[in-house]
Amino acid sequence: MEDEVVRIAKKMDKMVQKKNAAGALDLLKELKNIPMTLELLQSTRIGMSVNAIRKQSTDEEVTSLAKSLIKSWKKLLDGPSTDKDPEEKKKDTAVTSQNSPEAREESSSSGNISSRKEEANARDTYVSSFPRAPSTSDSVRLKCREMLAAALRTGDDYVAIGADEEELGSQIEEAIYQEIRNTDMKYKNRVRSRISNLKDAKNPNLRKNVLCGNIPPDLFARMTAEEMASDELKEMRKNLTKEAIREHQMAKTGGTQTDLFTCGKCKKKNCTYTQVQTRSADEPMTTFVVCNECGNRWKVHSDRP
């Protein structure tokens, strides 16, 4: 029975990834005829696959049947079990709050099911640890929530992680709105910067960290461009900062005053320069120049003094 449910779940996951739900209705009908148990829900995480199909499909029959299945499965989670001893009931109570039919993780062997449950529970419940975002009728805010959710769906990481990207998008938007308190240009720019960084192909780790809860929605809503940047860009900025500091120090200490350079800013010739070998030995030295009149600084790659 479990193998059959896992088989159906895998097919649904592929449909979601390929954005092609053809055949989903037949799979849902198969699920409807399978006597579902709490153990099957928890071990196969079939609910996540069904919920993903429900969100993606535009077929009313598919979405209706998916909703019906999820609703019936929730009753299994909410209702008490009568055929288990007290110790087993305690274990179920401990995990029920962290398992829903809308989250699933594939299981290939019974020996690994327990560890997979623990991993999925820790991963999937972070959204519920935050208050659900209040609903809004503001068309601008609703559109921003939709765009944030769409950005979170980039790369389909949300499927593997099992995150509710719609709720996450709403929580991020809510945090932004609560800080800015209106939907002016500042609000829109903040939303746009979140969307841009979430969709950045060179920075997938940011999106994954938001989806899995390592970066909570309220923190992500406040992050600066530097904080959201990819590791590669952060390293580049760090190196540029170091170089700028070094140039500043070189220009200020041990320099030689000269009138051979003209400041591009104030057009004066009262300058101080320092020459340093920054490249290979067979290339000209780099000249760091500072204008003693206005403080303007620049560098010249040449062999002149």
Describe the fold and architecture:
By secondary structure, the protein is α+β, with helices and mostly antiparallel strands. The chain has three domains: 2-125, Conserved domain common to transcription factors TFIIS, elongin A, CRSP70 (Transcription Elongation Factor S-II, Chain A, Up-down Bundle), CATH 1.20.930; 129-229, no CATH class; 232-301, N-terminal domain of TfIIb (Single Sheet), CATH 2.20.25.10. Helix content is 59%, strand content 7%. The chain contains 15 helices and four strands. Helix 1 runs parallel beside helix 4 (46-56) and helix 10 (165-180) packs antiparallel against helix 11. The longest helix has 22 residues, at 231-252.
Gist?
This protein has 305 residues and is of the alpha+beta class. Helix content is 59%, strand content 7%. The relative contact order is 0.07.
Overview features:
305 residues, alpha+beta, Transcription Elongation Factor S-II, Chain A, N-terminal domain of TfIIb, four-stranded antiparallel β-sheet, 15 helices, 4 strands
Alpha-beta content class: alpha+beta
What's the end-to-end separation, in Å? 83 Å
Q: How many domains would you count in the coordinates?
A: 3
Overall pLDDT metric: 78
